[in-house]
Amino acid sequence: MKIDYDFLINKISDSCEVLEFAVKKDPLLMIKNESSIIKLTELNEWLINELTHSKFRNENNERIITECIKFKNILNNLKVS
């Protein structure tokens, strides 16, 4: 199976931008969508873990991990607020 890394990286990056925008517009986002935020956090952690422990380490994996960590930080800030 061929993976379109650029597409995947762009989707994660877009998710970061959308989440940042949503947080600015609605400070109560976590309270209103707690279960969804928790699920997003779990899936993001899973992806980071899978890519970190992959035997196929390459530049694309590193780019995806970077975007996932950015997403993780946004989610963590959301939980703290």
Give your account of this protein's structure.
This protein has one domain. 6% of the residues are buried. The protein has four helices and no strands. The mean pLDDT is 85. Helix 1 packs parallel to helix 4 and helix 3 packs antiparallel against helix 4. It has 81 residues and is mostly helical.
How do you describe this structure in short?
The chain has 4 helices and no strands. The chain has 81 residues and is mainly alpha-helical.
User: Whole-number average pLDDT?
Assistant: 85
Shape: elongated
Instruction: Return residue spans where pLDDT drops below 50 for at least 5 consecutive residues.
Output: none
Please work out how many helical segments DSSP would assign.
Answer: 4
Question: What pattern of helices and strands is seen along the backbone?
Answer: HHHH
Counting helices, strands and paired strands, the structural category is mainly alpha
Main β-sheet description: none
Content of β-strand: under 5%
N-to-C terminal Cα separation, in Å? 40 Å
Please compute the radius of gyration using only Cα atoms: 14 Å
Query: How many individual domains?
Result: 1
Number of strands: 0
Measured as a percent range, the helix fraction is: over 70%
Give a topology summary.
Elements: H1 5-25, H2 29-32, H3 34-52, H4 59-80
Which features would summarize this protein structure in a list?
81 residues, mainly alpha, 4 helices
